[in-house]
């Protein structure tokens, strides 16, 4: 009887141990598959390499640098479009801009049939929100959506900005309000959409902050003058404002014990708001900063050279969050998880050999509200651009009309360039023997094809498309771009390109221009 009792005790002990072991295993698996929080910070109009992690002396970005040090710094990240609304729509959907109808142009609609990843994350149990600039500019209310595609808005808290070019939204405090409102234990997703360094800037704010003219990094397509240098320093100050609020958000995550389990992505929606940069498919219009961290889940301190498009962000977030479904299968972006999980530096995924970008209408800048259709493919060493309407002016018609049809002054209607002191200088010196060429670089008509050697010509000044020595590269890139556009059903190559001209412009002025002869 005693032996039977002892045997029973042993069996019970073994059973208890087995149950305990299973419970421990389930707990470990649950912890292993714990869904990450997500914070994405998107500056508004910031070109690569304007962050101090890249070696820029013009700006100081300790928060961006910290994310890069904790995780991965990307040298070759590109946007789907060099304009705010189409770039953000592509990022939100994981699709190319020519695949999302009105959302692929500027200041139009965002059809609700295109799913955005914040909605998918919310359906998967995430608490989601954004501050200031989500998807914009455009009319999401007219798109049969019940909120901005960026999520639920947190804009209540305001502050006194240091200059009139900076908006009054207190980004960091709004993030804290979002975190305070989050149900305990629920994973979160937050979109920090700064309005900086979008113009306007307070002229001289860079110099007033203590920066020196010799710190400005003047690209080769702009004249090296005091006016341009000062304008660049004003731009740098606004990048630093974006970074300061990012630093506060990271500090809050650290204080709350959430930093280790939060994916942080810091990037921009398109290039800097200067002539020949923003709204152009040249390098400074589409090449942006990118840093990603995720606590100790990914090896930090790495610098990666893989070609990345920001439409890769959607599948990355969905994979990290464990979201599955039919929508994943149609995405054109590719998850970055294999790169983030690697320990390699430099080139990690050799299959990432090309990225594609596009533009259509930016502002109301031409007769009949026409856009400037163009597509590009960027490989390791070259950038190839196909301009589908080389008869149009790339930055807008040189002259618009008064309400009574009277022509205005020449060279004052380049509305695809944000109004700025640099543009004013170029226009004022349009016939100058030295400076006149810089306006032409920004506004003159362009050939149907452009090819640039990015390694030797990073500012895209020397078009090699007509050079016989580069015929092989021209043909290779022409086939790369054409093949991808056909594969992804771009109307510009499948015969219905005029559809883009029918999409309404619903934000901003509609201007009058002389009818082309």
What would you note in describing this structure?
- By secondary structure, the protein is α/β, with parallel strands linked by helices.
- The protein folds into two domains: 34-350, Alkaline Phosphatase, subunit A (3-Layer(aba) Sandwich), CATH 3.40.720.10; 357-502, no CATH class.
- Helix content is 32%, strand content 13%.
- It is built from 16 helices and twelve strands.
- The chain has helices spanning 2-32, 62-70, 84-93, 117-123, 171-181, 205-208, 226-255, 283-286, 313-320, 326-330, 337-340, 421-428, 436-443, 471-487, 491-494, 499-502, and strands at residues 37-43, 72-78, 127-132, 188-193, 262-268, 287-293, 302-304, 308-309, 355-359, 374-378, 382-387, 449-453.
- Strands 1, 2, 3, 4, 5, 6, 7 and 8 form an eight-stranded mixed β-sheet that branches. Strands 9-10-11-12 form a four-stranded antiparallel β-sheet, covered by helices on one side.
- Helix 5 runs parallel beside helix 7.
- The longest helix has 31 residues, at 2-32.
- The protein is globular.
- The model is unreliable at 1-23 and 25-32 (pLDDT under 50).
């Amino acid at each position: 009887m005693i032996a039977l009792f002892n045997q029973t005790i042993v069996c019970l002990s073994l059973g208890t141990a087995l149950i305990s072991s299973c419970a421990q295993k389930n707990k470990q698996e649950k912890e292993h598959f714990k869904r990450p929080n997500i914070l994405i910070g998107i500056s508004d109009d910031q070109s690569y390499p304007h962050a101090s992690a890249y070696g820029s002396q013009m700006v100081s970005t300790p928060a961006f640098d910290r994310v890069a040090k904790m995780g991965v710094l990307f040298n070759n990240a590109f946007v789907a479009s060099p304009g705010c609304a189409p770039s953000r729509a592509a990022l939100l959907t994981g699709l190319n801009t020519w695949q999302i109808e009105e959302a692929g142009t500027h200041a139009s609609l965002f059809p609700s049939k295109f799913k955005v990843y914040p909605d998918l994350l919310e359906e998967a149990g995430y608490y989601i929100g954004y501050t200031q600039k989500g998807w914009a500019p455009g009319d999401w209310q007219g798109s049969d959506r019940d909120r901005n595609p960026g999520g639920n808005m947190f804009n209540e808290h305001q502050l006194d900005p240091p200059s009139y070019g900076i908006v009054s939204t207190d980004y960091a405090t709004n993030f804290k309000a979002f975190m305070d409102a989050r149900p305990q234990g629920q994973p979160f997703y937050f979109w920090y959409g700064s309005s900086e360094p979008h113009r306007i800037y307070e002229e001289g704010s860079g110099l007033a902050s203590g920066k020196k003219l010799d710190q400005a990094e003047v690209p080769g397509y702009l004249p090296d003058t005091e006016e341009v240098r000062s304008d660049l320093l004003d731009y740098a100050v606004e990048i630093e404002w974006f970074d300061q609020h990012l630093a506060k958000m990271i500090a809050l995550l650290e204080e709350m014990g959430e930093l280790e389990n939060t994916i942080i992505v810091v990037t921009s929606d398109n290039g800097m708001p200067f002539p020949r940069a923003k709204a152009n498919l040249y390098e400074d219009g589409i090449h942006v900063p990118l840093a990603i961290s995720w606590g100790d889940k990914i090896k930090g301190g790495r610098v990666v050279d893989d070609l990345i498009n920001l439409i890769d962000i959607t599948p990355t977030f969905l994979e990290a969050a464990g979201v599955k479904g039919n929508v994943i299968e149609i995405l054109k972006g590719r998850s970055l998880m294999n790169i983030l999980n690697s320990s390699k530096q430099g080139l990690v995924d050799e299959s990432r050999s090309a990225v594609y970008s596009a533009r259509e209408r930016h502002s109301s800048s031409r007769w009949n509200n026409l856009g400037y259709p163009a597509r590009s493919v960027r490989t390791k060493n070259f950038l190839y651009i196909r301009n589908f309407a080389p008869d149009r002016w790339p930055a807008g018609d040189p002259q618009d009309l008064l309400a009574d049809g009277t022509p205005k002054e020449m060279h004052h209607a380049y509305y695809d360039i944000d109004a700025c002191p640099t543009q004013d200088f170029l226009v004022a010196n349009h016939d100058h023997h030295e400076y006149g060429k810089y306006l032409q670089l920004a506004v003159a008509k362009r050939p149907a094809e452009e090819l640039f050697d990015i390694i030797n010509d990073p500012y895209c000044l020397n078009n090699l498309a007509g050079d016989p020595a580069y015929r092989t590269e021209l043909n290779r890139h022409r086939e790369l771009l054409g093949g991808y556009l056909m594969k992804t059903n771009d109307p510009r190559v499948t015969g219905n390109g005029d559809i883009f001209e029918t999409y309404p412009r619903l934000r901003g002025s509609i201007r009058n221009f002389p009818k082309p002869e």
